[in-house]
């Protein structure tokens, strides 16, 4: 089924993998903060789809709710919404400033609320829709030094379970994929070699997840064959719990 896919966080590691994975599924709206990367990804959509799909670029910080609301006023009716946008915050709880806490919840939770509010009436009228979040293992097991990040992802998990129940039977599914550590630029930026190796040693699978593996699982959630799966938080941690 050709459809319009709205992907936030497209310029991140998992987002880029999702663009390649889903380019043949329909036109895409690619949100991110790195314009050059978004432009390159728009070209990927056309190339991978053989010109059958096009991509619209949406360059914005989702913590800017004023600009977000302005953009949403003319948002096309996407039938698939994938919320891969996110940002980490490494800080002890007592050194986590309120503005940083608020910004994290705007990007992870409030922006998703506003986007779903805009898209849901169209999905309901069609009796079809896919709402998919990239959550995190840390929302389930906790993460010292990342309290704000884990709390924001935990809010996403509660949203997924509750909205999945509320929309059950409407043709709209709501799910999240919750990976552990993924081999992305973000991980490379924040973890030094020793810390990365220490993390890998804790993972039973003996390695970090690849962004393409996360994208492949999300592709299944986009497909019609996943109709019965809703309100689920699907772990992908290499056995780490």
The CATH fourth-level homologous superfamily: NAD(P)-binding Rossmann-like Domain
Strand content: 15-25%
Which ranges are low-confidence, i.e. pLDDT below 50, for 5 or more consecutive residues? none
Decide which structural class fits the backbone.
alpha/beta
Q: What separation lies between the terminal Cα atoms? A: 36 Å
Please give the CATH architecture.
3-Layer(aba) Sandwich
Task: Provide the CATH topology.
Answer: Rossmann fold
* Main CATH class: Alpha Beta
Mean pLDDT: 94
Q: What's the total count of β strands?
A: 7
How many domains make up the coordinates? 1
Rounded to an integer, what's the Rg over CA atoms? 17 Å
Largest sheet geometry:
7 strands, parallel
Describe the secondary-structure layout.
Elements (H helix, E strand, L loop, with lengths): L4 E4 L4 H10 L5 E5 L2 H14 L6 E5 L5 H8 L7 E4 L14 H29 L2 E6 L3 H4 L5 H20 L5 E8 L5 H6 L2 H10 L8 H12 L9 E5 L5
Parallel strand pairs: 1-2, 1-4, 2-3, 4-5, 5-6, 6-7
Question: How would you sum up this structure in a few lines?
Answer:
With 241 residues, this protein is of the alpha/beta class.
Structure description:
Pfam families: adh_short_C2. Keywords: Oxidoreductase. Residues 3-185 form the Ketoreductase domain. This protein is an alpha/beta fold. The protein has one domain (5-183, 212-233): Rossmann fold. It is built from 9 helices and 7 strands; from the N terminus they run βαβαβαβαβααβαααβ. It has helices at 13-22, 35-48, 65-72, 98-126, 138-141, 147-166, 185-190, 193-202, 211-222; strands spanning 5-8, 28-32, 55-59, 80-83, 129-134, 172-179, 232-236. A 7-stranded parallel beta sheet has the order 3-2-1-4-5-6-7, sandwiched between helices. α1 packs parallel to α2. It is globular, with a radius of gyration of 17 Å. The N and C termini lie far apart (36 Å).
